[in-house]
UniProtKB/TrEMBL annotation:
ATP binds at residue 294. This is Protein kinase domain-containing protein. GO terms for molecular function: ATP binding; protein serine/threonine kinase activity. Pfam families: Ank_2 (PF12796), Ank_3 (PF13606), Pkinase (PF00069). It comes from the Eukaryota.
Amino acid sequence: MLTHYPSALIKQISLTEEETKSSSKMDSIAVDSEEYLGDSLCGSISEGRDSILIQKVPHLECLQGLNQVLLSSNTILDSLLKAVTSNNLELCKSILTSSHPDTNTKFESNNTLLHLAANFGYLKICEILLDYGEDTDINAQNSELSTPLHQASSQGHLQVSQLLVRSGSDLNKKNIHGNTALHLAATSGNSTLVSWLLTRNPDITLKNLDGKTAEECGNDSVKKAFERYLKRTIVSSGPSLSNSQKIISRSKTVNNCEKIAPKCFLVLKELGKGSFGEVFLVSKQDTNQLFAMKVLQKDKIINQNLIKYALTERNVLSYMKHPFIVTLNFAFQTADKLFLILNFCPGGDLGRHLSIEKSFTEYRARIYLCEIILALEELHKHNIIFRDLKPDNIVLDEDGHALLTDFGLSKEKVFDNYQARSFCGSLAYLAPEVIRRQGHGKAVDWYLLGVVFYEMVIGKPPYFSMDKNELINNIQRGKLKIPSSLSSEAKELIIDLLQRDPAKRLGAVRDAEEIKQHRFFKGIDWDSVYRRELCPPKIPKINPPKTGIPAEDIYGNFYPADSNRILGWTFISD
Ligand SMILES: Nc1ncnc2c1ncn2[C@@H]1O[C@H](COP(=O)(O)OP(=O)(O)OP(=O)(O)O)[C@@H](O)[C@H]1O
């Protein structure tokens, strides 16, 4: 444990601070050393928040005086230890910059200062140790072989864990019990931290000395986080855009960006979160009309070379008008973020419905399938492939009709079944040809239609396994299991769509036409489907919240985009 500090050391510092206090330049601090320590520990164990202790920190001028005392008493390291454990930012920074002590010195149980700060969740102190310490070892191990990341994760300190991982902490390092940071976060039941760690691609197959993977150590909410991870969209980094590509936009681009901007929309609540963006319910200030606003962070997109995907989503949505494709109304940007204003679909996504209801009747699934087939047919007619078909990307409008959303992975100008090459999709929803990387095309969407149909009527995607490698292997070689309770038409449709060879798959030759003629859809009048005349289950009316989320929390930096403007982004629909 990390709580034993030499009391002599604490007394000495208290005395020093008291001395400084007597020079009357300092805010009040506790005089008694025991009380001081208790106060500092209880009052400041919180990430990133200024603690009670910080308010009691001496002013900067007197820190210099303090430093001299510390230096002359030759207890620099002990003083630094005290500064770290009492969350005293200024003192810590001051000692590091003036005396350059070895921040990798081991204290009790071989803990370094970073271990201590990480364990307490002192975010700012961790930052200071990493920024000002000379070669602070981010992967130092204590006597239990734990790294600072192990400490932060076991205590559930999200921001500290994020800082450590982003600064180069080894995610797959094991402690003496064989646990990785992910195991510890899972054991503590912290599904938010688990979800975030999963986005950094740790090795989820690693087992601890009890033979358990991280997922096996978690409670139900942690297990759900793992399941969501396997269903998330992944992409390989996109190619960079040339300047000329950046200005290509296939529809009306508005130069006067003042017309549509964050101030036009009141943010009401979060609707969903994906790998790339967050989606919020917003109301347009002048009309009170509700919309879904998708927000993408520019730095994330630019760092991962994903601008092309963002621009494709904006472009495709700007010219696709279809009853079963979500409508884009506006696109605008600020210095930090990109915004898409979409029609709001109050029924939520099918993924959410499936996680509550487990599965749908064939009758209900057929309605959604018919609508999605028409949407995919329309895209294919424009030589666009969707590539990311999954229940989370199908949203229900106010009448319960199914609409495609999230065109981030769609690809334009695909004329055959082999032209596209990027490795992208969502792990649980990868088509075999995407895994083989031999090129894919329109047939990929028909395979994924089969996957969605399977999940709708059976309750989980085909070949599903929580083990990533097994999942990938199953998709390529596993035996397709279909319960006998399904109708023979449904079984046949699943088999025809999940055909591994894209050339033999239903839809390979005459595209949607082949699927529409399958006997599962016997009796369907496709014109009436297009006119939205099928009757899906009704969606309960929602009452939007009256109060909004503070604008600055969502919009961040309000400055209009300038140097980092993404050309061809702004859009106002006719
Ligand atoms: N028009 C909409 N109306 C209502 N909710 C929506 C709408 N569009 C998206 N959502 C919700 O937001 C979630 C995330 O949106 P979206 O899939 O576009 O984000 P993403 O970051 O691209 O996700 P992914 O990880 O699938 O790539 C959806 O699963 C859905 O629940």
